[in-house]
Each structure stands twice: as C-alpha cells, then as structure tokens.
Amino acid sequence: xxxxxxxxxxxxxxxxxxxxxxxxxxxxxxxxxxxxxxxxxxxxxxxxxxxxxxxxxxxxxxxxxxxxxxxxxxxxxxxxxxxxxxxxxxxxxxxxxxxxxxxxxxxxxxxxxxxxxxxxxxxxxxxxxxxxxxxxxxxxxxxxxxxxxxxx
Length: 152
Hints:
The protein is α+β, with helices and mostly antiparallel strands. It has one helix at residues 18-56; strands spanning 74-76, 79-81, 94-97, 103-106, 117-122, 127-136, 141-148. It has a three-stranded antiparallel β-sheet, with no helix packed on it. Strands 1-2 form a two-stranded antiparallel ribbon.
C-alpha cells in the first residue's frame, strides 16, 4: 500500500513536489522581505509626523517661548500685585498726575489755582515735593508740575 500524505496535523496542504514547495517558500520570503524593507520608512515617516505635530503645539503664549507660571499679575502704584480685589484703598489718599504721567499720592487734597505752589509729602515717593499748578486751556483743567525739594 502506498499512502500519500496530503495534509499535516494542522490541516495545511503539503506540497506534492519540490517545485511547489520552493514556490511557496519564495512567496513567503518576498512578502517578508517587502515588509522588512518598508517598515523603517514607515517608522521614519511616523516619527517625522509626530515631531511636526509636537513642535507645532506651544506650551506658552509668551513671545520669547518662556513658560509663564503665573500670568495674572497687576501693576499698581509701582508694584506688582496678585489681584485688584485685595488691594486696600486708603480713603485719605489724594492722587495727582503730573506732566510726566506719574501718579503721586498725598495725605490732603490738592486745591490750587494757576501758578500757585504747594509743598506736600508724597506717600508713594516718601519725600517732600513741591507742586505747581498750571492752567491748560486745551483741556480746561490744571496740569501739575511736581519737583523734589532740594533739602529735606
């Protein structure tokens, strides 16, 4: 009796001759070689796409690229404060804006006429200052020239 084994235990069809077996092996090698030759290119393309996506996402809104941890600071009276609500306001402060757009705070109200001079202590600069009022006819209001006292 001559038995021909056509299938193995797993149910796969076995080649009948050596030509059929070699052609299957070559097909398997071609697909494996093709996959292995294309795989590095796909990995390179994927890495490049990831790099472009992550480089376009910005961590900050600062123009110089630095990371701002706390961006809600307010500049009030020459100092940085965290919020405007916690800023205590003194009822006895009388602000004057001089010709250089600098704000001075005094303990008493500044009531002056044209060319009148008043000497008051500035709470912001912590010094005595000479204030002179000038009438501005364009704005219909007084402009104030503030200068530091020579000797204190």
